[in-house]
Structure prediction request, 69 residues.
Amino acid sequence: MLKKIRIRIQNKKVILAIISGILIILVNLEVIDIDVSKKAMAVAHTILALLVTVGIVGDPESHVTKDKD
Prediction:
């Protein structure tokens, strides 16, 4: 059980999901101001959009299949 959890925690997407969940909880408990949260989300969306455009985050060759000879 713990081995599966360790493997999943090493995945970058899982780490981002955990951080996102923690931030949502903090915003809902009003530990983080909503205006600050909106500004942070705008910055994060801009950075991610740029990374996806450049092809760093997304896999630009995911649609390419290898021909088997």
